[in-house]
Amino acid sequence: MEISGDLLIGKQTLRGTNGSIKGINAATGEPLEPAFGGASLDQLEQACALAWQASDIYRELPLDTRAKFLETIAQNILDLGDPLIDRCVAESGLPRGRIEGERGRTVGQLRMFAAVVREGDFLGVRIDPAQPQRQPLPRVDLRLRYVPLGPVTVFGASNFPLAFSVAGGDTASALAAGCPVIAKAHSAHPGTSALVGRAVQKAVADCGLPEGTFSLLFDSGRDIGQGLVSDRRIKAVGFTGSRGGGTALMKLAAARREPIPVYAEMSSINPVLLFPHALKNRGAAIGKAFAGSLALGAGQFCTNPGLVLAIDGPELDAFIEATAAALSETPAATMLTPGIHKAYESAVNKTAEHGEVKTLARGCAAKGATQGQAALFSTTAAAFRANPELHEEIFGAASLIVRCPDLATMLELVEQLEGQLTAALHIDEADYVDARRFLPALERRTGRILVNGFGTGVEVGHAMVHGGPFPSTADGRSTSVGSLAIDRFLRPVSYQDMPEGLLPDALKTANPLGLNRRLDGKLQLSK
Ligand code: NAP
User: Fold this and answer.
1) What are phi and psi of 89, to 5 degrees?
2) CATH number at residue 431
3) Which residues form the pocket of ligand 1, taking CB atoms under 6 Å from any ligand atom?
4) How many Cα atoms within 13 Å fall on the side-chain side of residue 221?
5) Residue 270 · residue 455 · CB < 8 Å
6) Domain for residue 501, yes or no?
7) Structural domain total, the chain
8) Is-contact 305 272, C-beta < 8 A?
9) 331 preceded by a cis bond (ω within 30 of 0)
10) Which part of the chain is the Aldehyde dehydrogenase domain (predicted)?
11) Which of 68, 421, 486, 502 has the greatest number of CB atoms lying within 10 Å of its CB?
12) Before 34, cis peptide (omega within 30)?
């Protein structure tokens, strides 16, 4: 499929009339053809109007139709074949194997949500039948189901050009919930976005859905992204990116006449806690594995382990020695964009020059202009406590080890951390008693607590939480990965004394959709 550089507005492909952007080959810095026309405010209006028109129709289509739509998107993405992979590798600088794996994850997510939609539990059906004889007052008939919020805007992520972009997790969960999606392409991968967008647009046509179910816009500045968040017809936002970008959109959404939720995934340093027995028994092995996790994908993961807390001493030195040895052999890797590379270099240099920080190791020197060189730093607990700038995320393969005098100090520093996506505990059995004391603080601060592993590698499943308190995300009550992500785009509605003839099928007494439901508070399984 040829990349035309056009906007996808409903079933149309239209040239954007507000400036243009070009993709950039991440490895060489060369611009890639074609140019993509940025959407104008009129074109934004068209996309929003179509999404609004589609909304009430799309949400009431049979669940099986919605599920088939998600499966058709998955197949259409696969049908794009190698040109999608080639373009994505060029735009992102990520290795081919990683991008192929990410395509598998993207397709897998869409299929998982298709299964979730068919099963129908997300509708959360509850029925409290009327009790006309109840004394002193009769009870009304109350029935509840979850309905979709309405059109959703999705900002694609630079670091997951497939799995968290145009047809990624946010889009899949919003479409699964019954919400039309207007995707705002990330400027780092417009060609990848265009190809995937065409696959979704084709799926809309293949399945005979209202054309406004999906649109894709390019933005040559900030007007379209901000215009989408401000538009009265948009009812929620999915975003992955910088803290600055995410908080700007949160403010915009909160200032609307009708404020809307922004599910922004932003900034996390993902503390790694090394407990004494594990450190003593296997410090070097943990160090080697840590270096692998730190450098994975040039460190450009939201779950990258950017902070290590451990008790100072010879055991920690052995961990550092193994980490430093592994890192010093780690090749520099191409970063996603020149901007992200520049931000990484600047943050690493600033940390290296910090009076309270020691540079412990660097990865192999960069061979290309946008390659990031891994970095390992250390500081003391007192310096970490006194310098909040050391708590900030460095997006890339950089991590800070904090030498603590004891476990009480480790716990105290955990209490000072901002909200996190993950925390990793390295423990042996003899550490369990100490580790248990950390759990309440970690539960307050993180979305996922993992043992003897690292947060990189996020399983897409039903029990996954990829979320956490601010600033890791805008709203720690939800997840952006896994089937529970659908809940972000739903809200409950009760129907009181509604005649059977008017009730949605999901709430009819005879249960024509065969849904599991809660009848008078008791779970009733359909099979
Ligand atoms: P970004 O600059 O926040 O951009 C993300 C998306 O939001 C892009 O589509 C961008 O548009 C748009 N955007 C950003 N600020 C906006 C604003 N004020 N108004 C309207 N739209 C706005 O993030 P990025 O380019 O992906 O990466 C930059 C930094 O984000 C990284 O260095 C890293 O610190 C962080 N990051 C974090 C994660 C994570 O998972 N935690 C992931 C990726 C990046 P354009 O495409 O037009 O710029």
Assistant:
1) -60, -45
2) 3.40.309.10
3) 155, 157-159, 184, 186-187, 219, 222, 225-226, 240-242, 245, 248, 265-267, 302, 340, 343, 393, 395
4) 7
5) yes
6) no
7) 2
8) yes
9) no
10) 20-468
11) 421
12) yes
State pLDDT tens for residues 7-44. 999 999 999 999 999 999 999 999 999 999 999 999 99
Tell if the pTM clears 0.85, that is, is over it: yes
> Has residue 441 been placed in a domain?
yes
Query: Kindly report the CA angle at 483 between 261 and 225, in degrees rounded to 5?
Result: 35
Residue 317 located in a structural domain: yes
- Pair (368, 290) in one structural domain: yes
Q: Helix (H, G, I), strand (E, B), or coil: what is residue 287?
A: helix
**CA distance linking residue 525 with residue 510, whole number of Å:** 14
pLDDT tens-digit profile of 261-319? Answer: 999 999 999 999 999 999 999 999 999 999 999 999 999 999 999 999 999 999 999 99
Residue type, 11: K
Do 37 and 89 have their domain in common? yes
Catalytic residue among 48, 88, 302, 404: 302
Note whether 194 and 275 are same-domain residues.
no
Per the CB < 8 A criterion, the answer to whether 439 and 412 are in contact is no
The one catalytic residue among 71, 265, 315, 393? 265
> How would you list the strands of the sheet with 126-128, edge to edge?
490-496, 142-148, 126-128, 517-519, 522-524
Q: Is position 265 annotated as part of the catalytic site? A: yes
Angle of helix 223-230 relative to helix 41-59, nearest 10 degrees, comes to 40
pLDDT tens sequence across 463-506: 999 999 999 999 999 999 999 999 999 999 999 999 999 999 99
352: CB partners within 8 A, 6+ apart = 359, 375, 377
- Report the residue among 91, 102, 158, 344 best suited for mutation to probe ligand 1: largest number of ligand atoms under 8 A from its CB: 158
Residues 292 and 259 in one domain: no
State which residues form the domain around 395: 271-451
Does 436 share its domain with 375? yes
Three-state SS annotation for 134-171 = CCCCCECCEEEEEEECCCEEEECCCCCCCCCCCCCHHH
Residue 96 confidence (pLDDT) above 80: yes
Token duo for residue 426: 């390295």
Q: In this structure, what is the dihedral angle of CA atoms 254, 162, 110, 295, given to the nearest 10 degrees?
A: -90
DSSP string, 318-383: HHHHHHHHHHHTPPPEE-S-HHHHHHHHHHHHHHHH-TT-EEEEE-SPPSSTTEEPPEEEEEEHHH
